[in-house]
Amino acid sequence: MKFELEESNRGILDEELLEDMRRSAKALGRETITIAEYEERGKAHPSTIQRRFGSWTKALKLAGLQPSRSKIGITDDELFENIKTLWISLGRQPRYDEVKAPSSKFSAGTYEKRFGSWSKALGRFVAWVNSDSPDQPQQNVEEEQSAAGSTVQIASAKRSTRREISDRQRFRILVRDGFRCKSCGASPLMKPGVELHVDHILPWSKGGETADDNLETKCKQCNLGKGNAFNA
Ligand SMILES: [Zn+2]
């Protein structure tokens, strides 16, 4: 269904081409469209549009679409998730010049554009990490009661947190504990392959809350070794 801009097609108005770009972008639910995407969905051939308007970017602009897809449709959450991943891989706060491929999915420039500066982005990130407060009550109490058998009495006490540790809370604890096992000090930053877990100090099944002060970082070995200290 493509039509090329041959002699016979010169009558197609600029506006028709631009409208077709808008239509195609809209069909994708976006404010922009790539050449490859348009080639699949558009009525005209992308090269027709490029020739007519000088470049794809110029055509996007004339159509009132966004200049490129890369910075569109990225949510703040995705940007923050990327900082979290970067932070974990470095074991510390990423520096401006470290925010680049391949370790970072987004460039420092993307953060500057969104938040004004890298340090502002970090400020927003910290707020994002801390905004995940453990305030969803009592969701797993029933399950826990049936699974925990004899501990039903204790577990049925009112809970102010749910059992699950969120990603952001896990991150907070890792940062607080310096990405080290609280028992033996092992850290993946010193020794690749060390696996860190964030777990309850007083187990949730024993009434321990999923609160920062009842969570700690342990390496996999120590975490498994901790065994049943509380179940003895
Ligand atoms: Zn350990």
UniProtKB/TrEMBL annotation:
Pfam families reported in the protein's UniProt record? HNH (PF01844), HNH_repeat (PF18780)
Q: Which GO terms describe its molecular function?
A: endonuclease activity; nucleic acid binding; zinc ion binding
| Species classification | Bacteria, Pseudomonadati, Pseudomonadota, Gammaproteobacteria, Lysobacterales
Report what the protein is called: HNH nuclease domain-containing protein
The HNH nuclease domain, residue ranges: 168-224
Which SMART domains does the annotation name? Answer: HNHc
**Top-level taxonomic group:** Bacteria
Q: Where is this region: Disordered?
A: 133-163
